[in-house]
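Dear colleague,

Thank you for sharing your sequence with our group. We've completed the structure prediction you requested, and as agreed, I am returning the results in plain text so they can be pasted directly into your records. Please verify that the sequence below matches your submission; if there's any discrepancy, let me know and we will rerun it promptly.
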Amino acid sequence: ARRAAKEKEKTGADSSAAAATGATTAPKEPVFQLEGDKRWVVAFQVGTALKPISLTIDNTRMHHAIFINSCEHVYLNVTSKVNSVIVVDSKRVQIQLKSVVSQLEATNSSNIECQVAEALPSVNLGNTHTVNIYLMHPTYSRETEIVTTSCSGVNVNFPHEADESELIERAIPEQFVSKLVPNGKGGYKMETKPSDMFT
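Please find the predicted C-alpha cells below.
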C-alpha cells in the first residue's frame, strides 16, 4: 500500500511538472486575407531573422483596417490609403504605409517599425517596446499625435525643416518629474513634465 501511495505521489508530481511547463502546442495556421470587406487580417505569420516574411497589400480601400496579430519577422507593405492599422502580440514587424485615415495602434508588442509616406493623424501605443516611427511627409508629420502607455524605446523620425532629405530623430519621454504648483485659485495642482534627459 505504501509503494502504491508513493507511485501515485510520483505520478501526481510528474503531472504537475508537465502542467507547469505547458504542453507543446501546434503552431496556428498563418492568415492573410480580407474579412468582410472591412479589415485585412495578417496573423500567425512567423519568419526568422535570416528569412523574414514579406507581404504586400495593394488593393485596399479607404475604409479598410489592417489587423496584425501574433506575427514575427514580418515585412508588410500597404500601397494604398487605409482607415487604421492595429498590431497586437507581435514582434520584429516592419510596416510600410502610404497614408492612414485615423490611427496606428500597437499593444503588447516589441521591435515595431512603421514608415508612413503621407498622413498618420494618431499613434496609440500600449505596453509596446522598441518602436521606430518614420513620418516622411514634411507637413503631415507635424500633425501626428502620439499617445504612449507603459512603453519604452519609442523614437519618432521626421524630415528636417530646412532639408527634407535629412531625418531628425526624437525620443518619446519615458521618465517624468511631478510636483505640486499653485493653480491660481488659491489651491494646488500636480504638474508633470518630462525629465531633463528627454528635453
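Summary note from our side: The mean pLDDT is 90.

Kind regards,
the structure core
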